[in-house]
């Protein structure tokens, strides 16, 4: 399969969704770190998959954060062990 220059911009519509999601994700993590280290780590694990939902499913940033929260519910220790192992 041959790629073309236009392929670089084929997913440009996702750029602003990802940017807005990152702008939301950053202060959530910083706020958790300010509250103490533990809430920052928990919120990082809870919302870490937001970018996957934006890129793969094409959902908006807030919906992506909600879905990330839903899939990590009850599996935070597993995610923690995979991240910090």
Structure in words:
- The structure is a single chain.
- With 85 residues, the chain is mostly helical.
- The mean pLDDT is 82.
- The radius of gyration is 15 Å and the shape is elongated.
- The protein has one domain (14-83).
- Helix 1 (13-35) packs antiparallel against helix 2 (37-47).
- The protein has helices spanning 13-35, 37-47, 50-57, 61-72, 76-83.
- The chain is built from 5 helices and no strands.
- The longest helix is centred in the N-terminal third of the chain and has 23 residues, at 13-35.
Quick synopsis:
This protein starts with 12 loop residues before the first helix and ends with a helix. The mean pLDDT is 82. It is built from 5 helices and no strands.
Could you give the topology of this structure?
Blueprint: H1 13-35, H2 37-47, H3 50-57, H4 61-72, H5 76-83
Descriptors:
73% helix, mainly alpha, 85 residues, 5 helices
Instruction: Specify the oligomeric state.
Output: single chain
How helix-rich are the residues, as a percent range? over 70%
The biggest sheet, with number of strands, parallel, antiparallel or mixed sense and barrel status, is:
none
Structural class: mainly alpha
For the residues shown, what is the average pLDDT? 82
Structural Rg:
15 Å
| Proportion of residues in β-strands | under 5%
Whole-number count of domains: 1
